[in-house]
Design brief:
2 domains, Peptidase_M24B, Creatine Amidinohydrolase, Creatin/AminoP/Spt16_N, alpha+beta, EC 3.5.4.44, Pept_M24, hydrolase activity, five-stranded mixed β-sheet, Creatine Amidinohydrolase, Chain A, domain 1, 17% strand, 16 strands
Length: 401
């Protein structure tokens, strides 16, 4: 047995996650689970690689030792980063599904009830069809979501990791606000954000920060393209810090000049909507109720603005192309799922289309507690910023002690 010094969490944390997965498997009468989602692999083992476009799987029998099937190059991530002791790699000229088939036969699992993640992004249909066609006696069932049922609430160790990610988020945002002066380019702001995040201990995020200015702010999910920032316009920043693939995210908005009345009104509405969401959140409240807390405030505005998206989403483990866990939980109309302690969410009550051509975004990443919620961020400033070093300096001040 090798040491576990390279693990992101205690070995007891991983043992708990595996045990709870097996309990869910037993309730669903699944003998073997084939886990292929990159986030789920990280959650269960600590395994991560940027090479997840190649087939990779953790095979979890109900009782016997789990093992991994990976590309041979990616196998080098197993030994230093995970607790897994058994691997069955395939070469670049080999066949991943054939290797999986042979391994299941080798360990006497080929005639069991086998669950697989049918909706996993990186387990494409043609590979699933080949897997299903490779066995004569197995019974395959879709177990998509069986790992996410554990991931949706974070443990104390996970929350501590997200606190580290929050420090990177705050540092990146403060640097971005300071850099977003008239005459600078969006690329200048992006460079400042990235340098600050990484110097604060952050790693590459699942999504590059969203950094847009002027009329480009109205383009959904756009980011820097070299535009020069002008006087008296909006600069919008959405920054997601990451540590060990755990993320927190934050939106802030800058006005490069003296803010006009309409932007001050938008600021007040955004602040009210965010405060109302945070006041509403507590165990037992539904996703739809939290969404309504923001939506009814924003919908009453007379600025022409809308909340055109969900009001928030689960956030935590993520790989490109997205930093959110919204497929697990989104705050949106009609969603009746009750909140639970340990759920972590990015709250985004943003105003799109202020006077038709501007926006206001102020967001927060929070964790549901036993009595309400708390933010991961140490800065109290949820406002419309002016650019420059003094504007963002409070973002990086930590609590006394």
């Amino acid at each position: 047995m090798r040491d576990h010094n390279g693990l992101s969490f205690s070995i007891g944390e991983y043992e708990r996650r595996l045990r709870e997965l097996r309990e869910r498997m037993a309730r669903r009468r699944i003998d073997v689970a084939i886990i292929t989602d990159p986030g789920n692999l990280l959650y269960l083992t600590g395994y991560q690689t940027t090479g997840y476009s190649y087939f990779q799987a953790l095979v979890v029998p109900l009782e016997d030792e789990p093992f991994m099937v990976t590309r041979r190059l990616e196998e080098t991530n197993v030994w230093p980063r995970t607790w897994v002791e058994i691997t069955r790699p395939y070469s670049d000229t080999g066949d991943a599904i054939e290797t999986l088939h042979h391994a299941l036969v080798e360990f006497g699992l080929d005639d069991q009830w086998i669950g697989y993640e049918r909706n996993s992004y990186f387990f494409p249909a043609y590979q699933q069809e080949r897997m299903l066609a490779s066995f004569d006696s197995s019974n395959f069932v879709d177990c998509y979501g069986i790992v996410e049922a554990g991931r949706i609430t974070k443990s104390e160790e996970e929350l501590a990791m997200m606190e580290k990610a929050a420090r990177a988020t705050e540092a990146g945002m403060a640097a971005g606000i300071a850099a977003a002066v008239p005459g600078a380019t969006e690329n200048d702001v992006a460079a400042a954000v990235h340098e600050a995040m990484f110097r604060a201990g952050g790693e590459y995020p699942a999504v590059a920060p969203y950094i847009v200015s002027g009329p480009r702010c109205m383009i959904g999910h756009a980011t820097w393209e070299g535009r020069t920032i002008q006087e008296n316009e909006t600069v919008f920043l959405e920054v997601g810090g990451c540590v060990r693939r755990y993320h927190t995210a934050m939106m802030r908005t800058i006005w490069t000049g003296k803010p006009p009345r309409v932007m001050r009104e938008a600021e007040a509405i955004g602040q009210e909507a965010l405060a109302e969401m945070m006041h509403c959140i507590r165990p037992g409240v539904t996703s739809a109720e939290v969404d309504h807390a923001a939506r009814h405030i924003i919908s009453a505005n007379r600025l022409g603005a809308e909340l055109i998206t969900r009001a928030g989403y689960s956030i935590g483990i993520a790989f490109p192309p997205s930093w959110d866990e919204g497929y697990m939980l989104s705050l949106k109309p009609g969603d009746r799922r009750p909140l639970e302690p340990g759920m972590t969410m990015h709250l985004i009550p943003w105003l799109w289309g202020v006077e038709g051509d501007k926006l206001l975004g102020i967001s927060e990443t929070v964790v549901v507690t036993e009595t309400g919620c708390r933010s991961f961020f140490e800065s109290p400033e949820r406002k419309l910023f002016r650019p420059g070093p003094l504007a963002g300096s409070a973002m990086v001040q930590h609590r006394a002690g």
